[in-house]
## 1
Amino acid sequence: MSSTDLAVQEQQAAHREQRVANDFSIQIATVNGSGSQTANMVLLRSILLMGVPVSGKNMFPSNIAGLPTWYTIRASKKHYIARKKEVDFLVAMNPETAKEDVLTLEPGAAVVYDAPLKLDALRSDLVFYPVPFDKLVGPVCPDAKLRRLVRNMIYDGVLAKLLGIDLSLMEKALGKQLGKKAKAVTLNAGALKAGWDYAEANLAKQDPFVIETMNETAGKILIEGNAAAAIGCMMAGVTVVAWYPITPSSSLCESLITYMKKYRVDKATGKATFAIVQAEDEIASLGMVIGASWAGARSMTATAGPGISLMGEFSGLAYYAETPAVIFDVQRVGPSTGLPTRTAQGDLLQAAFLSHGDTKHIMIIPASVEECYTMAQEAFDLAERFQTPVFVMMDLDLGMNNWMSDAFTYPDAPINRGKVLTDEVLKKIGEWGRYKDVDGDGIPYRTIPGDGMPAYFARGSGHNAKGQYSERPDDYVENMDRLARKFETARKYVPKPVVQRNPRAKIGFLGYGTSHFAIEESRDQLRDETKVETSYFRLRAYPFNEELAVFVDAHERVYVIEQNRDAQLLQLMKLELSPELQTKLRSVLHYNGLPIDARSITDDVLAQEGFEVAKKTTARVSAGSAGGE
Amino acid sequence: MASPVKVNRIGLEPQIYKGGKTTLCAGCGHNAISERIIDAFYEMGVDPRRVIKLSGIGCSSKSPAYFLGGSHGFNAVHGRMPSVGTGAMLANQKLIAIGVSGDGDTGAIGIGQFVHLMRRNLPIIYIIEDNGCYGLTKGQFSPTADLGSKLKTGVVNDLPPIDTCALAVELGATFVARSFSGDKKQLLSLLKAALAHRGTVMLDVISPCVTFNDHEGSTKSYAYVKDHDDPVEEVSFVPFFEDIAVDYEPGTTQEVTMHDGSKLYLKKLEENYDPTDKIGALKRLHETARRGEFATGIIYIEPDRDDFLTQLNVVDEPLATLPLDRVRPGPEALEEIMEGLR
């Protein structure tokens, strides 16, 4: 309703005049390839070290150097770590975008900018802090070639002073970031100090934003989802990895290489307990994974949408010949090449049915870096238990951004290698057939080349329960029905949904993956701002389990929140839900390449619920429009 | 008294090395190749339980079902057998891999994977059953069809062929040979030598398609190949477990010691052909092709180069069966990683 909406506006405006501690976002606009990532990470970690919950998101171009990049840091005492739509504090370092960056700010925002850009002439409703970066960098960095890189560290010093971040903690964060590179640490520490000193001597604090010490981050780590998944793979005992470089998945395999070299080389012999191969393409990557799994190794690959498309044929082979495979899909924006450095959840339908014929795949969907770690391990168990490909559906936001998390816990269970034929089993079951459903769960026993058990001929062509070539109608149907039965069994073993039932709620939220954090925040916004109560079902796998229909049934309307255009999960749900339940489904879709934010969800839901929502300045959807190929 | 059952050096009967009944055309060259594979594996005393048979799609790729019935097999997708074989060998380097492909499976849809397999020197015997046409889809030209070769329908091939041997030599395969399905003796020697080699063996076997490509005007017919077979040497193979002294006149025969200690004796049939000389090998292939002939025998051999698994520095045991305590680092490793991220 309009009156409600007006109240929200007033409330927000009023906030601007007070002190705003640990609840704002900082956006740093730079040029990629200018070393700003180090400065941004130092700023991010120093806020973490202040004990304040924090998150960082990089919006970067598909380019090596010279194009606009935005890095957003959000401090949130309430632990909200989704992207915040509004920018409260801008650091404008890029002359190309500075004007637009300033013009799109909300009134009351603060701007640190490179003095020659003279941005203060653009608006009168913002707080401006000019800093002469070029003048400051000279004395602290005598080597002219390095100045471009060191220059960015100066804004960290300025921000430390303006926001009240302890400079010693920032220096600690710098040490952590640069590690043993003593020269670089000294150089950058000088730049930090120069920024701090300049701000102290020349800039009077006029904005409300401050970082205050809290005690909410003890023991927390900062990690990208790709690195978290890599650690999970290592702990799962992966032995064969084949991959092809593609944004945003490359750093998963690259992190894995780093960790494996450190922790998976035999001390006695100096030899590796793994093989990692950069293949000629994604097709070969999955082919190698399938060959390795067939021969008994725990094997994986990581890719993004274009790679998934290429893997179609082999995915069908693995489904039909029943070989395990773990495939990480770090989703980016499609179709086709799409926006390689932007995030989406657009591969769901493609992965679920990847390949021709009647093919269905297990998908598991982590929301957090912690789940990247745990689900990486679950993926291998599921792939071997069900002798089938398992797709781990991550996204760029999760894979490539830094997330605050509790430290990961050491796995307390042994790995599950599924039904592998042994002498004991053979005695028990009598006659073995590779594709015989002995236990009624659709899962056959397999043998592994070299293990001395009976051999079989794996094939993508029609086969009977013994694995022999067959074109007989009854053999075909029996086998396909068993595969369907196996998929049914999987419902009970894939990660269960996380459900928060609110007895007062008429509407339910249903989401998955990284939308989780924005959904949680949006639910709070709805409750606090409009007294709309919601339940929440966080889906974590396909095939679904029976709780899905129960949840939909229990609510009048269910908003399925997704980061794609075509409501892909909703479409998938429609295949299984009854027509009455289908009528309850609504869509909230966010697909501009930026991570979904709470305000977008809240506004969309309120509009669909009949509230009047004021049209606000849209976020920087233009970010990176100049991005190259 | 029954005569004693014939067994090989590991005590297995010939029967064990046979496979299912062939479903290929009567007289198909591929069947002759399957028979030589059976003979070679039997005579070399290879344990079939250690063998993996791999193939792509096509007539050739059906043939692994017709030999070594006690071995595991994987009939993969069209043109992509190399990657499946690579994965399997990474998982368990104690396996012995034999891949059977065709000229379409390798030269057309599979050329990308073929190229990269050759670069890696993976331990695998990669056989192309080469008839210059697609049999299973009724005789279309494949990329190894010679310029000017004629289809039954009268269509003439006007694109230059891919010479898989030249390509393999160029790309780094360490054992490159060509043979003819009708030359039992040479093919058997080559297959036995292949089993003694640690690295990629690329063996192109001209294998006429009796149904679609055995007519006049075809350059892959029995008659044509018989007339244009140009052996580069006479191949004798002496496995490490046989102690045979070979007499030869000095300067007429080149001796090559294989990875497992076996010996290869290559009797020169002409002036100075040296199969360890890469540039000479390529030159010879081009010259023979220009004459419309097929150079057969060992075209190129490099017995000592590190194979792919050695390059990757993997442990000696199969990765597939390493116990959990060797593939899952301890809690202290995880704690160290976590500390670095705080």
## 2
Amino acid sequence: MKPAKFDYIRADSADEALRLLAEYGDEARILAGGQSLMPMLNMRLTQPQVLIDISQTDDLNFMRAEDGTLRIGAATTQARLEWREQLKNEVPLVHQAFPHISHFQIRNRGTVCGSIAHADPSAEFPLCLLALGGEISLRSKKGSRLVPANEFFLGTLRTAREPDELIESVSFPLLKPRQQFAFDEFSMRHGDYAIVAVAAVADVEGVTFAVGGVADRPVSQYWRGVSGNDMDAVINDYSQSLDAQNDQHASAIYRKHLVRVLGKRVIERVLS
Amino acid sequence: MTNNKTLSTPSPPTSTRLNNLHVGQPLERFEDNALLSGRGLFIDDLGVKPGTLYAAILRSPHAHARLLAINSEKAAQLAGVRAILTRDDVKRWSAPFVVGVKSPMECWSLAIEKVRYVGEPVVVVVAESRYIAEDALDLIDVEYQALPAIVEIVRAGESNAVVLHDAVGSNVVSDRSFRYGDPESAFASAAHRVELTVDYPRNSCTPIECFGCVVEYLGDDGYDVLSNFMGPFSLHTVMALALKVPGTKLRHRTPPDSGGSFGVKQSGLPYIVLMCLAARKAGAPVKWIEDRLEHLTAATSATARHTTIEAAVQPDGKITALRYDQIDECGAYLRAPEPATFYRMHGALTGAYDIPNLAVHNRVVLTNKTPTGLVRGFGGPQVYFALERLIQRIAVELKLDPIDVYRRNFVQKNQFPYRATAGALLDSGDYHAALAIGAGDSRLARLRAKQDAARSEGRLYGIGFAAILEPSISNMGYISTVLSPEARAKAGPKNGAISSATVAIDPLGGVTVVVASAPAGQGHRTVLAQVVADVFGLQPKDIQVNVEFDTEKDAWSVAAGNYSSRFAGAVAGAAHLAAIKLRDKLARAAAQNFGVDTSSISFENGKIFSRMQPDKAQPFARLAAGFHWSPALVPADESPGLRETVFWSPEQLAAPDADDRVNTSAAYGFVFDICGVEIDRDTGRVRIDDYITTHDAGTLLNPALADGQIRGGFAQAVGAALLEEFRYGDDGAFLSGTFADYLAPTSCDVPEPTILHLETPSPFTPLGAKGLGEGNNMSTPVCIANAVADALNVKEVTLPLTPSKVMAMVGINAPEGRAQSALPTMPNQEGRGLSAAGTIDISATPENVFDVLNDPNKLAQVIPGCHNLTAIGKDHYRADVTIKIGIVKARYQVEVKLSELDPPRSFVLSGKGISAMGVSEGSGRITLAPRDGGATLHYDYSANVSGKVAAIGARMLDSAAKFVLKQLFEKLGQVATGDSVPPTRPWWQKLTAKVK
């Protein structure tokens, strides 16, 4: 379990990382926290020519509440966000999700943007970003673009990022008045990949319900003006519409069942 | 050996005058300072000789295939590669491993003509670093001819099943029946017959440190091996025979520390031989450390078992006969010490119960899975999962309290030593008292009250029990029970369990102890110091214990090693006896010096003195020094040295008799467990609410270490009950190659059990101690299963009790409405489900599509990531294909075949590929229907993926397969339409994307 040969370059700034990405394109991988990348390198599932380490870049290591969002830079660890005191008032959904996100040793190294870039269908950050209607800020030498979360995740480990693009930051919308949030997850053991994770975001007009771990990417649905009474049938129909995956730990039917059970719980919480 | 034979009165303990100041105390472990401060010395930490090379193993991605050709030229040319070991070398320098069953099955250290399980070693590369060696593996081309795999235990034994070993002609490599008493009459006259069929899965106890070895070939001096292999050292003989050298030419040493073993490090056996051959080929020392993927895939597994068990029962619950029909699934090869999983427990198959009649039918089958071997609890979990589930069923079916069933069937206190029906000589115990302790203090009453309360609220709460014998100190002859009495008579008897220990005293009075035990972190140094300190009247810290083991220098025999819970009873016992022998020698010298009778000599507080004349005293060190400095003072008939070695074997361990009765172990502890579980109706999660485990392991040498053993075994058993299983696909693909898929419990997942003790000393071991390292591995899985069965009122319970599985038993209660019809009544299999069907509309006509199929250039455009495509026959092509999913990339050599062409309506497109990531194979029918100048394309596919990618990425295979197929057919539509430009993000989307 040793990686194939690769070159390691430590970028000191975002610009340097972008220059290297422009040079190497798909032959390069961004190394931020390495919590998924390093095992995949060791298993030789990925064999890049170059690793571009952005973990030491100052200009990518930031958290800023601005323009109605909390922007988190590419080098910012999950632990840094977790310990941000204002987080529960800024992005309560992420605050609620944290206890389910892996183990503290992994959060100490792992980055928020790395999780988004990796696009594991069971991961919590992509789910939260989708549920909140957050955005991903992509940048290449040629320019920048913002991609909404619902267009970013394309499937298992697949995203809309182009090979020369860096996820510079992700933006979680800040709490708006009269919004309610709830997060719940079912996993085999504490800190495991979610079998099913769900998030609900309610405002005065309706509810956004998002589901991770079931399809090949996080998915969400917005229900306008739905009342508690309709909820059972609505969630039930929605769970049945999902392209649920089978694996050795849980059947697709079981996953859909959990979507109903957990979905009901979180939606009841946000509507009460 | 018969039931009626009068048993000799057990001899009194050897030492009658010991002040047990230290034995029985919860002394803190001497080992921990080094381990907790990073000073442990594990195999991978030790320095190696300059010039040592590193090995990597190419392993089979197939569960079953013929090994046609191996081309390693490219690998050999890679800079830094020093040797490549292939089957030709293995055939030249070694022999197949011997095994306890006579069968033409051959097991070598590398695959020879066939590969028979995913992960089977095929080639070894030796290079200047492990990195280079692994690079070289990717350059080796192996040509396989895939064969159908057999994975299902019952199916494997059927006459028309695919056969693994052609020379054997069947997958059944052992079939024996046993009969004790008169089971037929007992069943014929029984008031009730209670029957149950159960399966025990493949699982393991996964040590934190994997196997490792450093091996050197010394020419005429043979092989020198340093490894964390744990024994039994009867297998040293197996290794020497495989290497075709005398035992003296295979020196085996252990590193000072081993990071857990749990039986599993026995599986280093074939790798020691393999690396000896690799070192011989390389002409240099070779180091190999098993990585976690290799460990989970190919080290070993507990033996899977399929059992039908039946009891003849009187109306009051008294069992008069038992019948076992058992199939053990030992993987692709029967590897020593298998089929020991059956026979370790054989003499005690009647459990803790007084059951006079017994019938047993044992069959061993082979399947395309990793060979099985020792895993903590060895043989116990399999037996008790059947027997203790049956006890629960008897209580349910006869409407009895399980406690009453236990009480009515337990061997009575006054029956010990008790000869069990199949030959086990149960040394001591008081099972009724242990039950009373466990259930006592209102513990069971409280659980029952909790259950009543929960049930009245509609919650699912169950109570389970398990009562088990915990055998320790295995009879080295038990495995010969697999042979017929005639074959045994021909081969000569095998029996006993020789343990050895050496105690010495140096010129300053320092005491050293050396044992042939090869421990893996259990605290042997601490306990041996306690035991020996008490003999000499010294402090444990004064006793230096060395547990490194060297077959060339140490006193050892075939039973040496770290298994069958033999430490407390046998190894510590032998150390005690060796110390006594040395003490007696000192006492005789002291008596001569003091002019007193030897019997009056005492050893206390570092002094040797006469109890009759306390002024006659000498410091311990002074007397010891005399033996070294003035041999003239040593009594005339004594030798001058102060070093004694004792070999001890319990006399009760006789060879199996002509009626197949065998005393399989020297001591039998007892465990009685009670557990309460609650099942979440919504999610199917099993929560252990309370767990009470009561142990009788005879004399406890160190109660803190005893509790540590119990907690560790309990944690692993919770894993076996709820989480852990080695999973295989129907095609034999291995699916549990990482700790993300093989789910061992973490400390968050394991509740703290209530641990209670009873001590009825064994009359057969020197210290009265019995083993207690494996009890909960045997009792806890079935105890939890019984609780779940009770909670759900079901008969069939299979391990592990994962939420998905339990939820299927609870029943998914879908609400009324549209979804009701969408929910199948039966949950579908939790397999990989690698099948995909889809319909896409394409603008090409069906005829256009067939034009593509007839044009290799266009076909090459259709296959995503296709580098080149060459025809190798009609409608049959070979290509290099790079599959890319996110950052995962694998280059496959692929064969594509079109068949059943029915233009312009349908065809079958099949493909198979091989890469360093493994093999995959898929086939599907494509049907086309014209639609508005275009066509509707429907595909229906099934695929198999095996090897590394399946072992580590099983969680994502379903979606990955769907993605690759969708990509393929969308591309087919595009190419058929004439739009061969690869689809990229359309320019307008790029423009309209919000620009920052």
## 3
Amino acid sequence: MFIVELGRGLWTVLRMMFDKPVTVQYPEVKRPVHSRFKGRHNLHRYDNGLEKCIGCALCAATCPSDAIFVEAAENTDEERYSPGERYAKTYEINMLRCIFCGYCEDACPTEAIVLGDNYELSFTDRRQAIYTKLMLINPVPEGGKPTPQKVTPGSFDRSIPVMENPKD
Amino acid sequence: MTAGLYIEYVIKSGIILIGMTLGFAYVTYYERKALARMQSRIGPNRAGPWGIIQPMADAVKLIFKQEMVPAKADKLLFLLAPVITVIPAMIITAVVPWGRSITLFGRQINLYLADVNVGILYLGAVASIAIYGIVLAGWSSNNKYALMGGLRSTAQMISYELALGLTFVSVTLLAGSMSLVDVVEAQGANGILGWIVWNLSQPLAFIIFLIAAMAETNRSPFDMPEAEQELTAGYHVEYSGMKFALFFMAEYIKIIAVSMIAATLFLGGYLGPYLDQFPILGPVYLFIKTMIMIFVFIWVRATFPRFRYDRLMAFGWKVLLPLALLNVFIAAVITVLVGG
């Protein structure tokens, strides 16, 4: 009956008042992201502190929105940034262009660029939207040395490491 | 009339005007909180503890917003319409009593602004004036959506006012008076039993009053005049800033007013236990009953979807009006049999 249905509707709404709200108080409480969440990019380092990025610009080539700019320079054994011949002197991602597709991560031969879990990318002007290498690169790990490093000649001649199968 | 009496009336009027304005602010807060909980949300909680100064923040925002007047609008009516809408809403509760009388500073002070002997008639009359504001707002905006909203609200309010007026008639018959003080006292004349008999003797009146009042105040599920999906915002689509706030204010003050009237006509107004010993409890009881009535309004808004316009009119004329007439008949029979 119509009146009974109205009453049932009202009762359901009233019952909901005593449920726990589902709201997450965002700036104070942050929900963890999923394991394959694609957030801000991180440039990784090896355990000894050398950068994984070798400046090949494959990420820039594969980027569908042309958000990445890479300028490579030569490594020397006096000033070594990464294994192999070259490193990324400039590495910039324009976050206004980036669509977080993750193709750069797929293209990277050294697993240097990985999309992380930081989704709080806000800026107040277009200049700030360009994330430089300094902002993207991970800190030097425990036991490693900051780049550039002075190394014994001939010890880091291989730029692409032996790859492993993905674990997750 | 002595000077003291003048001061008394000024203070009482001030209490009504300021109370209604503040009441408007906090009814919006109350509604947002209650509605949020009904939808498993939290509601405003950022401005101040538990979001308690959120209405103030909203007011400041609205005051500092840009005021726009459309180029082809009828300027005078456009500026006048919000005022015409808000004034009746502010003055409608002047006849609603808050309590019996208290002694303050050696003066016997009646806890009502005016005990008009045609109080119920006053309610109906003032409620009708607000329609002018809405229809003029719709017309003067020179906007098709606003015009449609204004037309709809006029048609809707006139249709439902009949049913509303007929519930007033049944109350008047039972109380034998149009003064709201007499109506309240008639409900309390025979204690709690008398009050139960009062409501049982007019079985439909309260429900018809609630439905018609929701239509009168343009509340969901009768918010046809401002159906967002069809009319963008209805009659106030061209209004911004404080002029928009006045329409908003009128709507919420009308909800308070209608809740107060419902509490007075059907829930025993200021009556409650220990009122004879402590007459100051009168306003407290009225406040509690009004809050419950406002909650019912919010509850209904959270539950029911909007009526279709033709069904709204059909419901008003073909269902509500005959039922209200039947209710008047029942009330009249009871009055004749029992002797009112």
## 4
Amino acid sequence: MLKIVRTPIDLDEVLRSVKSPEAGAIDIFIGTTRNHSNGKEVLSLEYEVYEPMALKLMEAIVAEAHRRWTINRIAIVHRVGKVEIGEASVIVGVSAPHRREAFEACRYAIDALKKDVPIWKKEFFADGEIWVGSQSDILGHP
Amino acid sequence: MISICVKLFAMAKDLAGTGETKLSLPEGAYASNVLDHFLKVNPKFSTWKDHLRVAVNSEYVDLHHPLHDGDEVAIIPPVSGG
């Protein structure tokens, strides 16, 4: 299951979608929204997506995970729009005959997503807002 | 001339002042010409230029990628999903 959603992610749905009688392990990764960033309090977050490309790259991640590891099923659901502090912004689920493959494929999927999938996070502070990854201090410009 | 649709996101959208625009470019234009256009629109783009990626029809391309009439070109600032 691959989805971009604009409402809270349904963990049970992710779990159901990866359950398999062939599986001996299910690994679930939940990314949640932090209330602090570089020492500043984050009040809320908002995600933007280039949806057709995001889904295409998520499909490629799933295909690559199946190519590299013996796994049964994989699900990736990312939430966009406004997300409150402490809520799940992304859930990855992987089922596999054995736990090692489930752990490794799950880690690969979330790492690959964070590197390439066109989704952007904006953090809102009491005194402003920033697109994460485009801060001048990180990019090394004034 | 070729006509392309440009999509801009996050920081790039803020700098351009729009999330989507049509652009006419000469035949034989490259992905880099789209970035050049936005450098003229807002010189602040130059600060981020080295960190922007370009996608054509939902695939990352390098700046020498040739563009064709009807292409959808996206300006992709550093991603931060997850």
